[in-house]
Amino acid sequence: MLDSFDFDLSEEQRLVRQTAKDFAASEVAPLARKVDHEHYFPKELIPKLSSLGFMGVFTPEAYGGAELDYVSYGVVVEELARMCASTSVIVSAHNSLCIWPILAFGTEEQKKKYLPKLASGEYLGCFALSEPGTGSDAARQTCSSVKEGTSWRINGVKNWITNGPEADICVLFTMEKPELKHKGINCFIIEMKNHEGVSTGKKEDKLGICGSPTSNISFEDTLVGDEQLLGAPGDGFKIAMSTLDGGRIGIACQAVGIARAALEDSVAYAQERKAFGQPIGKFQSIQNYIADMSCRIDAARLLALAAAKRKDAGVPYGREAAQAKLFASEMSVDCALKGIQIHGGYGYVKEFNVERYLRDAKITEIYEGTSEIQRLVIAGHLFKA
Ligand SMILES: Cc1cc2nc3c(=O)[nH]c(=O)nc-3n(C[C@H](O)[C@H](O)[C@H](O)COP(=O)(O)OP(=O)(O)OC[C@H]3O[C@@H](n4cnc5c(N)ncnc54)[C@H](O)[C@@H]3O)c2cc1C
What percent of the chain has pLDDT over 90? Predict the structure, then answer.
């Protein structure tokens, strides 16, 4: 279904999509229920994802990546999310929130040291901006970095970190000079394993994306050298915001994948389930739900891939990425709700997958900037224009 909708994908992008689709069907789908019900981190998928280039989708070949474009990245995330939203966010946080800032702001030394291990899946990456008291208002960082000769001493706690419990590398944001507000924020590349003063908290017990491990990360007198600073001192906020611009395209694609799952399951169910002597798909109410879901999914994908195309073309894409994320995430929750409605009572129990789609879709309205924040970002761009 929906194969005719290809947004003019190039030959290479089509091949990537088919590869991701086949992989998601053969390797990701069989694990999806276990991932959700047992809050299982699908570790065994990492080497397989890496062998297809999905742990370093847009990382250049020179650093061991697949060197594909951002449209391809979006397509991969959608196909993974179609089968398992947890798997898709493990991949998207790793690629867009950890690899991308190192690629965009790292020194040659940092890129050579970290990107090959990240792109090969030997290392898993995470991005630590949020804190217990600081989410949407990300400029108000309290985790501190204090310069001591050629080292930095880091103290503080980061909250809700996707991949946190499993991560080897963390792109970390800290406040050095609060008097400069957002211009006083630094960014570091932190090696997580066996690093004195770095510890992760318990895995969060979440509503959805249950196999995507989330935890806080604590830094207690953690020492790092100057060579771990990403960008210049004070660049942290700029790095965080530009990273999130790209990340939001991935979250939009994740939302599209979840919504597509709701639609495809609903189309199948509506043709099988009978009421009043005929398949429920014969009723116009059900057809209306299906038609609305289909229109909105295609519209969301268009927004997401249009933003990705702009990113690939090197033109500004912040507003487009925020619009894609806002529209796609709200669309996804709505499609999941309609999917449950189409399934009737069976939509409300775990025997079918549609209730999972609702739980998984909801987070796309929250992380990488809530819907309220996306609206602020979009309006901010328009008022600037
Ligand atoms: C499962 C999960 C994974 C996550 N992964 C990561 C990660 O990998 N890295 C990371 O750094 N963070 C991560 N986060 C954190 C996430 O980005 C934040 O939860 C999100 O940005 C919202 O921040 P908050 O929870 O502090 O809510 P708050 O900022 O406290 O917001 C609460 C409510 O107030 C609204 N609000 C706040 N400010 C405004 C405003 N100015 N105008 C209108 N409404 C406003 C919000 O939209 C929201 O509805 C994750 C969160 C979750 C739940």
Answer: 97
